[in-house]
Amino acid sequence: MSKSIKKIIVINGPNLNNLGKRNNNLYGNESLDDVENKMIKNAKENNFEISFFQSNHEGEIVDFIQKLNKDKISGIIINAGALSQVGYSILDALIDMSPIKFIEVHISNVFSREEFRQKSVFAKYAEGQICGLGTYGYLAAMNFFINKDQLND
Length: 153
Hints:
35% of the residues lie in helices and 17% in strands. By secondary structure, the chain is of the alpha/beta class. The chain has a single domain, classed as Rossmann fold, CATH 3.40.50.9100. The chain has a five-stranded parallel β-sheet, with helices on one face. Helix 4 (88-96) links the parallel strand 3 (75-79) and strand 4 (102-106). The longest helix has 17 residues, at 136-152. The radius of gyration is 15 Å and the shape is globular. The N and C termini lie close together (12 Å).
C-alpha cells in the first residue's frame, strides 16, 4: 500500500439507515447522516479521504467490498449490525482485503444485551472491536487508523 493513500471506508449493515429513528435509548438520537458528517469533518481536519456504504443486504455489502481497490485504502470500519453474528460471506470478503485491516464497531454495548448479540464472526479477525461508546465509536476507529498511519509515515 502506498503511504500517500489515506482513505478510510465505512460500511454499515442492516437497519443502520434508521439511526435516529429507532430505539434512542440504545442507539442515540443521531442519524447516519449526522455520524457521517462528523467523520467527514474529522477526515478533512486530518487530510484523509473517507467514503461510506450502507446496505440492508449481505450480498450488496460483499459486492461493495470486492470492488474496493485495496491499494488505495488505509482501513475499513464496519458496523455489520445484525449480520455480525452470521455474516461469514462479509468476513471472507474482508479477509480477502488483506493486508488492509478492519475495525468492528457497535453503537450499543452488545455484551450487555441479548446473548445472541454477544458473538461476532468478525471479532477474531478484526484489528479491534469497539462497542458501547455510541456513535463516538466510529470516530474512535477512524482516529486509530489516522494515528496508526501517521506513525508509519
